[in-house]
Amino acid sequence: MMTVVTGTPGTGKSAVAEELERRGWMVVRAAETVGPFVLGDDPDRDTSVVDEEAWVRSFAPVDGIVEGHLAHLLPSDRAVVLRCRPDVLEGRLQARGYARAKVRENAEAEALDVILVETLEVHPQETVLEIDTTNLSLAETADLIEGFIRGTVPPSSGSLDWSAYLMEGL
């Protein structure tokens, strides 16, 4: 069974993936598999441009977890979308040294549910779990993911509304 763990940068994907690995789960980091599909760099957005369709077509399913902000594009048995309140997300990304424009772009994407919407375009809602990591520990987040994979935590999505963030500062 393949489960993807996705979300906007800064929501906790890499950290929870490390926790799940410590617990014995096999984890593939999507970022380590996209290299052959990088078409170039987007200096304005400080990111690489990936041929997502070619990457998805070539990706061999795994029995485990695939983590990354593009992971939701992969067909899988279950999809977990990590979320974080945009103001908290801004702080996390600033601490990583992200440029102000990139911090704002990611916080706005989070407020607009971009990754969740993209996930629901690929995965049936009954296979999706949205987790608000804003105030959860890594252990609590990993517990929810494990429960979802095992079927003891039910699917749930669409309950978060951070659209008010978009009105701040206008």
Structure characteristics:
single chain; 170 residues; alpha/beta; 5-stranded parallel β-sheet; two-stranded antiparallel ribbon; 6 helices; 36% helix
Q: Could you explain how this protein is built, in words?
A:
The protein has 170 residues and is of the alpha/beta class. 36% of the residues lie in helices and 19% in strands. It is built from six helices and seven strands; from the N terminus they run βαβββαββαααβα. The protein has helices at residues 13-22, 52-58, 86-95, 100-111, 114-122, 138-150; strands spanning 2-7, 27-29, 38-42, 47-50, 64-67, 78-83, 128-132. It has a five-stranded parallel sheet with strand order 2-5-1-6-7, sandwiched between helices. Strand 3 (38-42) and strand 4 (47-50) form a beta hairpin. It is globular.
Taken in chain order, the helices and strands follow as: EHEEEHEEHHHEH
Mean pLDDT: 93
Give the spatial strand order of the biggest sheet.
Answer: 2-5-1-6-7
Please summarize the sheet with the most strands.
5 strands, parallel
Number of strands: 7
User: What's the alpha carbon Rg, rounded to whole Å?
Assistant: 15 Å
Separation of the first and last Cα atoms: 45 Å
| Structural class by SSE content | alpha/beta
Total helices: the number is 6
DSSP strand (E) fraction? Answer: 15-25%
- Please tell me what the overall shape is: globular
Low-confidence region ranges: none
- Helical fraction equals 25-40%
